Structure formats: C-alpha cells, structure tokens
Amino acid sequence: MDSKQVLQTIEDEKISFIDFWFVDIFGELHNVGMPSYAIDETSFVNGLEKLDASSIVGFKSVNNSDMILMPDPNSFKILPNDYDPGHRKNARIFCDLYDGSTNKKDRYNRDSRGIAHKSAEKLGEFGFTHTNWGPEIEFFVFDSINVYPSPYAATHSGGGSGYSIESKESPWAKGNVSTAIDIKEGYYPSQPKDTLEGFRKDVCDDLYNYFGIKIEAEHHEVATSGQCEINLVYDEMIGMADNVIAVKNLVKVKAKRKNKVATFMPKPIFGDNASAMHTHQSLWKNNTNVMYDHDDEVAQMSQTGRYYVGGILSHASALCAISNPTTNSYKRLVPGFEAPVNVCWGLANRSTAIRIPMYNRNQEKSKRIEYRVPDPTANIYLLEAALLLAGLDGIKNKIDPGDPIEENVYKLSSEKKREYNIGSLPVSLKGSLDALSSDSNFLEEVFTKDFLETYSELKYKEYTAFAQTPTAWEVSMYADA
C-alpha cells in the first residue's frame, strides 16, 4: 500500500483508530493510538510529532528528546477483534524513527528497524538482491504464574521469594491425569494432552486473515505445561521482522483474553527444555539462491554459502549478546536440553549451532541454513541484521567453516572437540557482552558505536542486577539448616 491507499482503506473499512507501532532497542513493542480523523496525507509526508524519546529506555536524554514517527504505509493492517473486543475497528502501522532535532530527517541510529534496513542495503555491495528469513517461534502459555510472597519480593529477596507455574498439562497439577505431560515429553502430543491446539490455531487464523502472515506449521513443543511453536513461511528481511513482532504481540493479547499467560522467556521451567527461535536464512540474486550448488556432493551448498556459515560461526560468541540477550537465555544454553552450546555446523544435525536442512536434495528454492542459537527474547530486527553482517563478513574474508560435523556433538569428549576445532558459546550474558566488546568491527558500519555502547551498558546493568539477587535454589543449596 501507499499512503493514499491506506487513507482510502481507513475510510472504506470505517477504521476508528490507528495504532502506530515501533520497538525499542531490546525489541519491546510500543504503541501510540490516533483517531482516524486526525490522520491525513501530511502524516505520511512529515511524520508524527508524537515521541518523547527520553521516556523510552535506551533512547534519548530529556534535554534532547523530540523525535518523529514516520509511518510505513506498506505495513498497514487491520487488527483482530481481540485488540478491542466488541468496540472499535482498529488498524496498525509500523513506524520508522527520525531525529527531530535537525532540519534533515535523519534516521535515528538506535532505531532497530532502521538498523535492519541499513544492513539489507549492504547486500548490493556483494551483488545480492535480497535475503529470505524463516524463524521458528517458541513460547509457553500457562494458566497462571504466581509469585510469592509478592512480585516485589522476587527482586528484593530479603523477605523470601518464589514462584509457581500453573498449567493443566503440568505433571504437578492435581486431578489432570488425562492432560498431564511429563518433563521433556511434550513433542507432538494429541488431544486431550495438548490443551492448546485450539489456541494455536486461533492465533494462526488471525495471523493469516488479518496480518497476511502465512504459517508453515504449528505444534506443541517438547516441554511440558504448554510449550508451543509457530513456524512462519519465509519472507524478506523487514517484512519477516515485522511479522515476528506481530506474532509475539498477538500471542500475548490472545492469551490475556483467555485469562492465560504467554511468555517468550527462554527457560521458565527448571529441568525441562527451553524455548528457542531457530532462524532459517538464505541469500538471493534475483531468482537464484546463492547458497545452492547442485554439484556439491556433501550438502549441495555453494562456496559462498559456506563462507556465510564461516562468518556466523567465527562471530558466534559476540552474536550471543544479540541472539541471546537475557540472563535467562543462558539457563537454556547448557548441555542436555537440545540447545546448541558448541560452535560448529552439520547436515541435518540438531546438535550443532548451524544445521543445513537435508529433507530433499536438488531443491534450490529450499536450500538454506538454520542458526539454532537464538531465543525469542532477541530483538528480531537486530538479530537479522547481525546475522546478515556476520555472514557477509565471512564471504568478504572467505572464512571457511571447515568440514560439517556428522556426530552427535553433545556426546563428544573434550579431546574430540579440540580435534574438530569446536568452540563453545558463552555461558553468561556477561560473557557474550565481553565477546561483543572485543569483536564488533563486523557490525560497526551499520550498528554505530553509540548504539553498541548504549546497548551493552544497559545489558551489563541487567546482568549485574540479577547476579546480585539470591535465588530460592541458592538458598536451598547453600544456606545452613
């Protein structure tokens, strides 16, 4: 759509309000609503003078906080009824962020969507036209989460703290024999054990009917207590990032309407599998998949594709600061729970950081890599941008990833890993931030130093805050009885 088509649709569909969406540097969605009668052609030409950037974490100081929201008419979508049940018909538009303090409309350097745009522009320097992306979005839907004795005590534990998860599927729930799913036994169950099949289908229907987002598949995941997965049909970079934001928000909205709690926290349940966001990606030059090579006997992967893999693996530790950006992320990146902790690649091998899907040979359209490290707390715009820049750095510097690993990496000895030159990912958020501080050159043409310093400073503070907080587990293990 262009702006004229948007305005005509607003009139024809009798849209009452437009919600203008944007994300902060951590990928959290923010919104300002305006009545449709307040929007005209100048709203798309001059932008909206509606943003006090000092009130958004990681944006601007109070003495220089005026910013402009520039609506992207191509992102216009009518919202499902769950956003305003029984009242108004609303629509949403994603906004790009511009600095209002200069005469020139400068794209704000901490605008995540702008960073993704800028990284996509680098493709032309390599003769590529576009990339395709296909994330697998995992999350939990619980009946409730109870924090004891209060949410305040969870971060100020002198008075004691703890939490409980309630779910009809949990093995600890009373009286739910027919719906109980044991730890690590939740993969593809049928009803009645899968109590969320209808919820997922409702989400998928709305994603397609309202947002135009095509779904490849939906299913219950391995963990108990409502772990779900929705796979999106591939799309180009910005479109897919917008889609991921829409999926995460709709899941939360629908869960709330049903008096449930949806969370994209990677590891909410001790001892069970965690949620990932495996990210499929491919490089294209018009209609040619640059990653595909019919004559390659091993993986039908081109040399360009191998260099792309090499770039991501060589920067994997630094990438973790973006792909796994929370303290809880590193509760997932541990051995024994199907999470990749080893820096290597393989064919159809889910124990490696990068997997080359090998369902069928001689399929140029579907040749891609799957990066298995990210989790759903990642800012999708930054994640796509960082992975692309790492891969392009691999192509530029001809970084060879070595031979693909055919064995189960989880079971390899330390000696064997050294023989195969398999490294390990950071074990904490601090470790990933330290890696980023020493390995950020590949990002800095797109991610400015100002952005990286601000992002890292806030994340170091997050790590420190949680590192200082005693947990119930630590008390039970180390306190004298």
UniProtKB/TrEMBL annotation:
It is found in: Cytoplasm. Its cofactor is Mg(2+). Its main location: cytoplasm. One of its GO terms (biological process) is biogenic amine metabolic process. Mg(2+) binds at E136, E138, E221, E229, H278, E370. InterPro entries: Gln_synt_N, Gln_synt_N_sf, Gln_synth/guanido_kin_cat_dom, Gln_synth_cat_dom, Gln_synth_gly_rich_site, Gln_synth_I. It is an enzyme of class 6 (ligase). It catalyses: L-glutamate + NH4(+) + ATP = L-glutamine + ADP + phosphate + H(+). This is Glutamine synthetase. It comes from Candidatus Nitrosomarinus catalinensis. The lineage of its organism: Archaea, Nitrososphaerota, Nitrososphaeria, Nitrosopumilales, Nitrosopumilaceae.
